Amino acid sequence: MGFRKKNKSPPVLSHEFVIQNHADMVSCLAMIILLGLMFEVTAKFAIMFITVQYNVTQVLDEKQEAVNLYQYGPKDVATVFFYLLIAVILHALIQEYVLDKINRRLHLSKTKHSKFNESGQLAAFYLFSFIWGCRGFCHKPYFLWEGYPHTRMVFQVKFFYICQIAYWLHALPELYFQKVRKEDIPRQLYYICLYVVHITGAYVLNLHRLGLVLLVPHYLVELLFHASRLFYFSDENKQKGFTLWALLFVIARLLTLTLSVLTFGFGLPRTENQGFSLADGNFNVLTIRMTCLAAICLTQAWMMWKFINFQLKKWREHSQNQASKKKTVSPKTKPPKREPTRGGSANGVVKSDDKMSPRARKAKAS
Q1: In sequence order, what DSSP letters do the residues of 219-275 get, joined into one string?
Q2: DSSP 283
Q3: Which of 164, 156, 151, 160 lies closest to 204 in space, CA to CA?
Q4: Which of 50, 55, 100, 337 is the most exposed place for a label (fewest CB within 10 A)?
Q5: Which residues cross the membrane (predicted)?
C-alpha cells in the first residue's frame, strides 16, 4: 500500500496519491520529529512526543532503591500522536509484506479480501497486546480497588495504555487509507469508538488496573476469532476454531460483568478515599461508579446481542444447506418393462412368411 511501487503515478495530492503514499508521508513526519532530538532548541519539544512524560520518583522503603512511576497529563496527547504515526507505518508494513503476499496466493474475492486484511491486522495486534498485557496481569481481585485512586503506574502499564489509545485512533484514518467498503464502515466505527472510549476512560479515571484485567481475556477471545477466520479463508473446512471461540466469548462476557460488579458495586464503595477531586485524581463517587458500570454492562449486552444474531444466522444457513441437499437426492426409479412385438415372439423376430417368394406362397397354399 504505502511502500508499493506503481508504474503509473496518480496526480500529486490527489486522493489516490495520498492513499498509495500515505505511509511514506507519515514516515517523513515521524523522521522530522526524531531529527528534532539532534538540536538543542527543538529537543525539549521532540522529547515530549517520543518519551513517556510525568515521571515521579517514589521511595517505598528506606532499604530499597527509589522506583520510577508515572502519572498522566496533557502532554500525553503528543506522545499518543507520535505513536499513532508509528502504528500507521507498521500497519502499512504488515499489509505490504505479509497480507498482500498471502492474498495473491489465495485468490480471494473482494469481500473476503477485505475481511482477510482486517482479520490479519487485528490478529497481529491482539497477539502483541495479549502477550504484553499478561506481564502486568494481577491475580487478586481486591488488587483492583485496593488503594484507589491509583494515580501512579509503572512504565510498562503507562506505555501500554499510550500504545492502545494510539492504535485505535490510527484505525480511524485507516478506514480511508485502506478503501474500506461503505457497508463495512459503520461496523468498524462502532468497535473502534468503543475501544477508544473504554480504554481512555480507564486511563483518565485511574482505573488502569481494572482496564488491564478486562482487556487481557477480551483480546485472547478476539485473537482466537480472527485467527479462526484467517484459517477459514485459506480452507473453508477449518471451522473448529469458531466453536472454541463461541465458548470463550460467553465466558469472557461473564468474567467482565463479574469483575465490573465487584469493583464498582462492592470494592470501591468500601475504600477509605471517597469523594471527587481532580487534583488528587479521585473519582470515587456514586455517579461515576454507576456510569462506568452501566457503560460496561450495556457494551457487554450489545456484544452478546450481536453474538446471538451471528449464531442464529449461521444456524439458519446450515439448516437451509441441509434442506437443499435432501431435495437434490431423489429415490431411484425402476426402468419400464418392454412390451413384446405383435404377431411375433417376445424377442421381436420377424415372421418367416414375410420373406417367402410369391411362388412359394402359392405352393404352400395348395
Answers
A1: HHHHHHHHHHHHHHHH-TT--HHHHHHHHHHHHHHHHHHHHHHIIIIIIGGGSS--E
A2: E
A3: 151
A4: 337
A5: 29-52, 80-99, 120-138, 158-177, 189-206, 212-232, 244-266, 286-305
Instruction: Return all residues near 130 (Cβ < 8 A) that are at least 6 apart.
Output: 216, 219, 220, 223
Q: Which of 219, 223, 235, 245 is closest to 112 using CA atoms?
A: 235
Is the model's pLDDT at 261 over the cut of 50?
Answer: yes
Angstrom distances, CA of residue 31 to CA of 17, 26, 344: 20, 9, 103
Type and span of the H or E element at 174: helix 155-177
d(CA 93, CA 120): 12
Q: Average pLDDT for residues 78-86, to the nearest whole number?
A: 97
Give the integer Cα–Cα distance in Å for 144 and 254: 17
- 281 φ, ψ to 5°? 70, 30
Confidence class for position 337, pLDDT limits 50, 70, 90: low
CA distance 36 to 78: 14
Rg for the chain, CA atoms, rounded? 35
Q: What is the pLDDT of residues 349-358, one digit of tens each?
A: 444 455 555 5
pLDDT at 359: 59
> Which amino acid appears at position 303 of this protein?
M
